[in-house]
Amino acid sequence: MEKVNLKSINLKKKLIKIFKKFGLSNDHASISADALINAELVGAYGHGLSRLKMYCDRISKGVINPKPKIKIKKISKSISHIDADNSIGFVAADIAIKTAIQNAKKTGIGMVAVKNSGHYGLSGYYAEQAVKKNLITMIYTNAPPAVAPHGALKSLFGTNPICFGTPTGSKVPFILDTSISMINRGKIRVAAINNKKIPKGVALNKFGRPTTNAKKALEGVQLPIAGFRGSGLAWMIDILSGVLTGGNHAGRVKDPFDDFSGPQNIGHLFITFKTNLFVKNYNTRIKDNIRRIKRLPKIKGVKEIMYPGQNKYKRFKMNTKKKIKISKIIEKDFEILKH
What is the C-alpha to C-alpha distance for residues 78 and 168, in angstroms, rounded to an integer? Predict the structure, then answer.
């Protein structure tokens, strides 16, 4: 596929200009641009520029509010509840993680629930912000139906990611950010756009048969990790991020690409806490934990036992030294959105 190179600083300016054209404030446009660029830099292309047109289309259709009146209800010194007023998800999540960090710094633990939000990109992006403040974090969000509950014929749960982050005593944080599906939906969408196949064993078509055709997979059902266990995790996250927060749940989250009948009302839950709540030598203990695991005998072909977040950090460092590559398909999106 042909590529076009742009420097990330110019790309950010371009993205801000587009988001402002669709009604976002300069601050909200900048927050959204940073999140999209981060996804490109860590190699999560399904959550990056490939979604730009979708966000703009939802603003145009009136199902994302470009001028939200976001309300933060203080429940206690540690707990806050945010009504995002159908803002673009990046903005809601940015306020939420900053509030959770602030609460944790004051009291030791911060919990922030969000309702009336939208898709916010990568959970790991927000986890990194907490970890940089020397906090442990857990983040949950639900998503549109893509995975069938165990034993059901119809998809209902989203690919509902599980995210956990912790400082490691080194510059590379431990960030586990994984969907409960065999493959995240963004990768399938990118494959569909580029007419590429998806791996075997990750999805079924609408007739319940295995498929490697990305477009047929989007019409069908994605498979969860570990069978009924993955389905159970998806259900848990639907409860934590949907039922608990006041957000949509039980399959009511709308698909951002195909359903413009109303706002998504996605729910998020952000939990942050200090590393020294129970022990004073957490950094020493986490270093020992990682060191002992990395010293285990390795199977043939494995040079290093990696902890979650290491590969992403390497990709980020490598990609920040390069120009961001933009496909011709996304270049066309830019041209459409400029006019």
Answer: 24
Q: Is the pLDDT of residue 190 over 90?
A: no
Tell me the C-alpha distance between 36 and 15, whole Å. Answer: 9
**Spatial separation of the C-alpha atoms in residues 162 and 124, rounded to whole Å:** 9
Task: State the pLDDT confidence band at 186, using cuts at 50, 70 and 90.
Answer: confident
H helices present in 48-88, as ranges: 52-60
| Residues 15-29, mean pLDDT to the nearest whole number | 97
CA–CA separation, 270 and 285 (whole Å): 25
pTM for the model: 0.91
Strands 162-166 and 221-222, how do they pair? unpaired
Question: What domains are there in the chain, each with its CATH number?
Answer: 3-181+224-279+315-338 (3.30.1370.60)
List, in order, residues 6 or more apart from 339 with CB less than 8 Å away.
none
Instruction: Quick: pLDDT tens for 251-272.
Output: 999 999 999 999 999 999 999 9
d(CA 94, CA 267): 14
With beta carbons less than 8 A apart as the criterion, state whether 23 and 59 touch: yes
What is the pLDDT, as a whole number, of residue 7?
57
Place of tokens 């957000």: 247
Which two structure tokens, joined as six digits, stand for 26? 């300069």
Q: What is the distance between the alpha carbons of residues 212 and 61, in angstroms, rounded to a whole number?
A: 32
Closest-CA residue to 331 (of 9, 61, 18): 18
Confidence of residue 100 (pLDDT cuts 50, 70, 90): very high
Q: Is 250 left (phi over 0), alpha (psi -120 to 50) or beta?
A: left
* Proportion of the chain above pLDDT 70, given as a percent: 98
Burial category of 171 from C-beta neighbours within 10 Å (exposed 0-12, middle 13-18, buried 19 and up): exposed
| Residues linked to residue 210 through DSSP beta bridges, in sequence order | 204
Q: Which amino acid is at 298?
A: K
Number of residues written out for the chain = 339
Half-sphere exposure of 223 (CA within 13 A, CB side): 17
